[in-house]
């Protein structure tokens, strides 16, 4: 009787330790996902800010400036529910304005244009990477949260189910081909 009781206690302790380890892993995944989302938000804000600076610098023609400024402003001011659409529209506006290499070269020729073109090229390249890191973190957290043990023992607590950030983040061809110094 005593040996059976000891084995039951050992099994319960082992199960408890395994569930505790799983809950800790899930917590670390949620923390990684939050950090990746903060990095994505920072990169999106940086891209919109650089775009607004370029649009107001009088380097571009008026139509391109207005298009970029409005798209960047909408992306910066968008509420969370509409953020993906606004950021996708900014990507489309950037592709429309910088579809040709000649437009990038025109920006580079004006005083301070080389720096502006380099900053914009870096910003549009970092957004897809940040989004990929965020979505990979979301995918890992979702995979763990789908396990029965996590659902049955409510190891995720009251944390909301993680959502990926889906947007059009393809950079303009003229900026994507530029080497970053």
Q: How would you describe this protein?
A:
The chain is mostly helical and 181 residues long. It has helices at residues 2-56, 62-77, 83-97, 101-109, 113-145, 148-152, 173-176. It is built from seven helices and no strands. α1 runs antiparallel to α2 (62-77), α1 (2-56) packs antiparallel against α5 and α2 runs antiparallel to α3.
Please summarize what this structure is.
With 181 residues, the chain is mostly helical. The protein has seven helices and no strands.
Largest sheet: none
For the secondary structure, the number of strands is: 0
Report the mean per-residue pLDDT as an integer.
92
Unreliable stretches covering 5 or more consecutive residues: none
Our estimate of the beta-strand percent is under 5%
Helix segment count?
7
Q: Which geometry do the CA atoms define?
A: rod-shaped
**Secondary-structure content class:** mainly alpha
Fraction of residues in helix: over 70%
Distance between the termini: 74 Å
User: What is Rg?
Assistant: 24 Å
The SSE string, one letter per element, is HHHHHHH
């Amino acid at each position: 009787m005593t040996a059976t009781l000891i084995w039951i206690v050992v099994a319960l302790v082992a199960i408890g330790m395994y569930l505790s380890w799983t809950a800790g892993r899930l917590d670390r995944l949620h923390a990684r996902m939050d950090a990746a989302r903060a990095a994505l938000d920072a990169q999106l804000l940086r891209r919109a800010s650089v775009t607004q600076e370029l649009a107001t610098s009088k380097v571009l023609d008026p139509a391109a400036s207005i298009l970029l400024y409005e798209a960047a402003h909408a992306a910066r001011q968008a509420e969370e529910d509409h953020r993906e659409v606004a950021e996708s529209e900014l990507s489309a506006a950037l592709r429309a304005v910088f579809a040709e290499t000649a437009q990038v070269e025109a920006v580079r020729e004006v005083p301070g244009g080389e720096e502006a073109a380099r900053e914009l090229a870096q910003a549009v390249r970092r957004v897809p990477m940040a989004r990929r890191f965020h979505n990979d973190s979301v995918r890992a957290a979702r995979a763990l949260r789908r396990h029965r043990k996590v659902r049955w023992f409510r190891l995720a607590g009251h944390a909301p189910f993680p959502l990926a950030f889906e947007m059009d983040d393809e950079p303009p061809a003229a900026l994507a081909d530029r080497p970053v110094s």
